[in-house]
Amino acid sequence: MRSILVFAVFISISGYGQWKSFILSPRGDTLNRVDMKGLKQGPWSIHVDDLRGERGYEEEGYYENDLKEGVWKRYSLQGVKIAEEQYRWGMLNGKQQYFTYNGGLERVETWRAIDPHQAYDTVPVYDLKDPSKIDHMAIVKNEGVAIKHGIWSYYDPVEGKVE
Questions:
Q1: Residue 162 DSSP symbol
Q2: Are 43 and 37 in contact (CB under 8 A)?
Q3: DSSP-assigned states of every residue in 41-110
Q4: Integer Cα distance of 11 and 72 in angstroms
Q5: How far is CA 31 from CA 41, 60, 110, in A?
Q6: Are 155 and 102 in contact (CB under 8 A)?
Q7: Are 59 and 45 in contact (CB under 8 A)?
Q8: 11: part of which helix (H) or strand (E)?
Q9: How far apart are CA 55 and CA 49, in angstroms?
Q10: Which end of the chain has the smaller Cβ count within 10 Å, N or C?
C-alpha cells in the first residue's frame, strides 16, 4: 500500500515539470519552451529571415508567462549586434540602444513601462503660472503601455557624436 502511494506521488510530481514544446541548442540547453498552459517560458531565440527588402535578424532573451522580461539582444544575420532592449511586463522599460549594421551606436532611447496590473495611476498636474508647483494630483486610467521617458539621443553613425 505504501509503495503504491509513493508511486502515485512520484507520477503526479513528474507531470508538473513537462513542457508542451521546446528545442535544444547545440550545447544541449532547452530553448523556446512552452508550458502546458501554452505560455512562453525561459530563454528564447527567434530567427527572422529577410523579407520584402527588410533585413532579417536573430533575437534572444527571456520570456516569463508569455511576456518579454529583462535584456533582449538583436543581431543581424551576419552576427553584428543591432539592438539591446530592456523589457518589463512585456513592454520596453529603461535604456534601449540601437546600433548600425557596422556596429556604431545609432540612437539611445529611454522608456517607462507601466504596471498592467494597476488599473489606475496617479500623476501630478502642474500649475500653469508656476510650472515648479504641483496644482493637484490626477487619477488616470492605466492602459498598460510603455511611454517615452527621459532623454533620447541620436548619433551620427560616421562621427559618433550626438546629433
A1: B
A2: no
A3: EEEEEEEE--BTTBPPEEEEEEEETTEEEEEEEEEETTS-EEEEEEEETTEE-EEEEEE-TTS-EEEEEE
A4: 36
A5: 9, 10, 29
A6: no
A7: yes
A8: helix 2-16
A9: 7
A10: N
Hey, what's the cell of 121? 495611476
Which residue reads 492605466 in cell numbers?
142
**Rounded to whole angstroms, how far apart are CA atoms 99 and 107?**
7
Q: Residue 12: what are its φ and ψ, rounded to 5°?
A: -70, -35
Q: Give Cβ neighbours of residue 22 (< 8 Å, ≥ 6 apart).
A: 30, 31, 32, 33, 34
| pLDDT in 10s for each residue of the chain, 163 residues | 555 544 444 444 444 557 666 666 666 667 888 888 889 999 999 999 999 998 999 999 999 999 999 999 999 999 999 999 999 999 999 999 999 988 889 999 999 888 888 888 788 899 988 989 999 998 888 777 888 888 898 998 777 778 7
Within 10 angstroms of residue 32's Cβ, the number of other Cβ atoms is: 18
Q: pTM here?
A: 0.72
Report residue 37 as a C-alpha cell: 498552459
Amino acid at 18: Q
